[in-house]
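Structure (tokenized):
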């Protein structure tokens, strides 16, 4: 029988961040059983130190908010669809970041309740959870120069003139599960909310497992020490990332519907 996740092309570069976790699940016949087995094997816990368990959506008690149930019960309601499948893989790949995001979102729900508006802090956490990409930059002049190009929407400079910097002093790691879901059927206009992570040069010589562990710990610490707002992100048209799509010539980046010039009203400040 064809499984719902059979449409995913695992060779895509934006799935590298979750590929090790995915390979463990895909090797088993029942992905739900494999998911909870892996969570138990890795001793995953929520912010209350409760063991993490992925449950069918219908087991979420009526009237209980999704994030609150994860916070108070350690149970993640998970539907059989791409959105929740990617969410589960992100939990396996970046458990410390996910744990902190859940703590932030659950605290906001407890404080403000569930209303029509999430409020700025919960909005910012939801954006991170759903649509973030980790923009990992070497803490050097090269890294700062590239970040400035991206902030200022200088796309030709960032993606063509500084193309050789990608892989050497900058990496892009997909994080948001809604972002990954959109990329199953990629289109040029898909844009992530980039979150900056500064690293030392030795980060880029580590293997991917070590890099993932470092990012998980480092970003989780950032989220604990920083009051998250929607101003923390910069737009990143992800198919413009060198090597992430075919035909990335000057004409590709000249498409102003995707690679927009910066509006005068847009602030240039971004957290560093």
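Design, position by position:
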């Amino acid at each position: 029988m064809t499984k719902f996740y059979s449409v995913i092309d695992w060779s895509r570069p934006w799935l590298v961040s979750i590929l090790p976790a995915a390979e463990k699940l895909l090797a088993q016949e029942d992905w739900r059983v494999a998911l909870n087995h892996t969570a138990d094997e890795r001793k995953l816990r929520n912010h209350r130190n409760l063991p993490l368990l992925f449950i069918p959506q219908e087991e979420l008690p009526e009237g209980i908010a999704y994030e609150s149930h994860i916070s108070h019960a350690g149970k993640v309601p998970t539907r059989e669809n791409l959105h929740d499948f990617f969410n589960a893989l992100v939990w396996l790949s970046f458990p410390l970041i996910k744990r902190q995001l859940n703590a932030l979102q659950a605290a906001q729900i407890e404080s403000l309740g569930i209303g029509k508006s999430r409020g700025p802090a919960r909005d910012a956490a939801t954006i991170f959870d759903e649509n973030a990409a980790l923009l990992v930059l070497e803490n050097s002049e090269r890294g700062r120069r590239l970040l400035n190009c991206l902030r200022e929407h200088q796309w030709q400079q960032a993606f063509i003139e500084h193309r050789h910097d990608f892989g050497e002093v900058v990496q892009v790691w997909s994080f948001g599960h809604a972002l990954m879901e959109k990329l199953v059927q990629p289109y040029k206009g898909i844009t992530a909310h980039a979150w900056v992570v500064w690293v030392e040069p030795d980060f880029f010589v580590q293997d991917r497992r070590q890099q993932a562990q470092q990012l998980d710990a480092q970003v989780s610490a950032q989220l604990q020490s920083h009051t998250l707002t929607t101003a923390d992100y910069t737009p990143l048209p992800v198919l413009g990332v060198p090597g992430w799509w075919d035909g990335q010539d000057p004409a590709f980046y000249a498409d102003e519907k995707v690679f927009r010039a910066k509006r005068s009203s847009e602030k240039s400040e971004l957290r560093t």
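Reviewer-requested clarification: The chain has a mean pLDDT of 93. Residues 97 and 220 are 5 Å apart (CA to CA).
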